[in-house]
TrEMBL record:
GO terms for molecular function: metal ion binding. It comes from Pinibacter aurantiacus. Keywords: Calcium, Metal-binding. Belongs to the sulfatase family. Residues 70-483 form the Sulfatase N-terminal domain. Pfam families: Sulfatase (PF00884). Signal peptide: none annotated. The keyword DNA damage does not apply. This is Arylsulfatase. It comes from the Bacteria. InterPro entries: Sulfatase (IPR050738), Sulfatase_CS (IPR024607), Sulfatase_N (IPR000917).
Amino acid sequence: MKKFIIYLFVIAATFIWGCNNRSQNVTTTSKVDSNKLPYDDPAFHGKISKTYNESEMEWPTLPAPAKGSPNVIVIMLDDVGFGMTGTFGGSIPTPCLDTLAMSGIMYNCFNTTAICGPSRAALLTGRNHHVSGNGFLAEWATGYPSYNTMIKRSTATVGAVLKYNGVNTSWFGKNHNTPDWETSAVGPFDRWPTGMGFDYFYGFNAGETDQYYPVIFQNTVPVEPAKSPEQGYHFMTDMTDKAINWLELQKSIAPDKPVFMYFAPGAAHAPHQPPQEWRDKFKGKFAYGWDKEREITYERQKKMGIIPADAKLSPRITSVPLWDTCSPDARKLYELLYENFAGYLAFADHEVGRLLKAIKSLPDADNTMIIYIVGDNGASSEGGLDGTLNEIKALSGIPTTIQDNLKNAGKIGKPGSEPHFPIGWAFAGNTPFPWVKQVASHFGGTRNPMVISWPKVIKHDGKMRSQFLHLIDVMPTILDVMKVKMPEYVNGVKQDPLDGRSFASTFANANAPEIRDTQYFEIFGNRAIYENGWVAAVQHTLPWRQDLAPGFDFEHEKWELYDVKKDFTEADNIADKNPEKLDHLKKLFYQEAEKYHVYPLDDRGAARLSVPKPSPLGNRTKFTFYEGATRIPETAAPNTKNRSWTMDAVVTTDAKHKDGVINAIGGSSAGYVLYVKNGYPTFVYNYFEDDVKTIKSSKKLPDGMVSIKVDFTYDGGGPGKGGVVTLYINNEKVAEGKIDRTVAARFGIDTFGIGEDDGSPVTHDYPAPFKFQGKIEEVNIELK
């Protein structure tokens, strides 16, 4: 036996020696065409003969990052105003952001587009948002190239460019850059994160998601939370865990290989949903109101050096009521809503802090560049004049009284609520600038803080960076520090040039020259143009009235003029004193608008939600769904709104397995559901929680195969009217009920499903997801 083992060893050694001697050239570096991605397969420079004895191996050289390239982590919060975080003078403590700023550098002239989807498109592509096709949001998309929200193949993302250069890429959290109608299980997936250059995605495909009942996808597959809200589930914690796990796995396998991560929490976008202990931290902290908060923040910002010492506080907007003129009940509600938001933002800082701690423990932590952008636009006024506990209802233009909201004050921030503070807190949150999210004409909509840390390269010098920068400058900066050239072609498509420029020159020099002299802004008809320290601006729409088009004349609006080198906060409109400068800037805006495809201007507000859009459903009016069809977005589900329709479900049950959801769409904000409980088929229509109608069968469901039919006869007379629901079992009428009002536009942020109610439940009559116990043979829906 011993001789046999020795014999095997000698044979193996001889084989290995022979292989090594026949394959002297194992790897070589082949020249590649850096003008196109992905690179061509490298040529083979080995030798191929009839047998391996005379042949020489050569492994192909794969793309690899340049030696010394850093890890790059881009963190972007959502709906956070310039003056909200403690790091930039606000009243909400953000100690983790403080720590990062104390080791890196801060920027106070960094600009976004004024709204989330366009901002993220600009960040990811390095092009202006209209150029990439994201002139506004996916839900409001129209059939014009700049507004169809279909990121063009000619504007490849930073993820794609880095991936093809050998960098592993990931995306966590919010994705509001996939067209609304492409987010179902049938795709196409070209414009999902994994189709836009990201190896791994864990997050949601929408402007927002419920933090307790999120609509989550891992790559392109829907997944459900492992825990319930009652068991402590929160999406912000979940996505942070997943991001840390991804980082640690990457560095466990290839510790020297740089990675790119895009970390985009839903926080602090509505619904504002912090865990209870974070909400409790801010009780009584904002009793003085939004006017005082604005003054306190402004003075603190000057003292901290966040803004120039001579900067004025911009004039208050007359649309915002003075705090002291609000009723005691109103002030009580407003205070509760902002305490809740403060808890949400502070909690987000804590979770980002966990990610930063994990980054600090990486083997190459010192060679990790963190770009932390504190908001994708200014603070949001979309909660309206009085705030709301049901954000989708508010965005639909449906008011709720202060008294009704106070009756439900105990629900604020908890599962089932979708709260948003009133506009007064948004103006305070954007201190010292005027206006709010959506208003791209003014810095209150577009100016966001930024912090960058890179221990190996950036040394904290305590000096504020005040160069005028824009989101489009982030991608060129990343490519610059990773020594990656922007190619002329990606996936065979000739690329539009990058609109941004690298600002890496500011890392070591607080007084580095400006990298850009001109930048336009436009969202919803709100417009501005920046040139060499001057801003011309025209505010057009009121963001808290998306249900109305303003009816303003684009051609004859009155523009404002600011010298922002002297007037940091846009406090002094000097248009009347400088008509020639204003005229020059207006003409420049028109030139830039043509160059970057801004037209046509469109101010229709929520009316754009009903603009016909592509759909995987086509023009069908008859649909058949089977068990397991879940997490279908509202835009890819049969549109039963503002019309008559029927649903006929064929199910098989036995005496012990009858209960559960058959079909549901929407959730706690609004929606409808057909379900069986205690054997009784039941239909519930939830109209924004104001009017929840239950139509329950008078008879139990019999055993075996059964038909359950819902017939809805619409009253007509316009959108959002009522109708009559008739319920049948095996074509026998078992219930009838009147629904007074129906949802005209969108149920909300939940989805359509067969056999379960994923996400927040449409009704509190059952715990979600309340999976059906029997077998669903098919569900047929017909639109009449």
